[in-house]
Amino acid sequence: MPAPYSNDLRQRVIDAYTAYDGSLRQLADRFKVSLSFVQRLIRRYRNIGQVIPKPHAGGAIPSP
Q1: Which domain holds residue 34?
Q2: Is residue 33 part of a domain?
Q3: Could you give the CA distance from residue 16 to residue 50 in angstroms, rounded to a whole number?
Q4: Total count of domains within the chain
Q5: Is 43 inside a domain boundary?
Q6: Degrees to nearest 5, angle at CA 13 with 12 and 15
Q7: What Cα–Cα distance (Å) separates residue 35 from each residue in 13, 20, 40, 55, 59?
Q8: pTM for the model
Q9: Where are the alpha helices (DSSP H) in the chain?
Q10: In the chain, which residues have pLDDT < 70?
Q11: Is residue 58 part of a domain?
């Protein structure tokens, strides 16, 4: 399992989204992430106002 994206990248995606810098698909292409990541990040930002990743919930520990 890959490590979570950095908080800096997450914040840059949200900043671009709130500045209306393109569609979700364009933001995904611009930041080289998946469309589903952008969708989930925006949903999380709207719901709880944070961009930090969820804590590890069990299973295999990601390698550094």
Answers
A1: 7-48
A2: yes
A3: 15
A4: 1
A5: yes
A6: 60
A7: 11, 16, 9, 22, 25
A8: 0.81
A9: 7-18, 24-31, 35-48
A10: 1, 62
A11: no
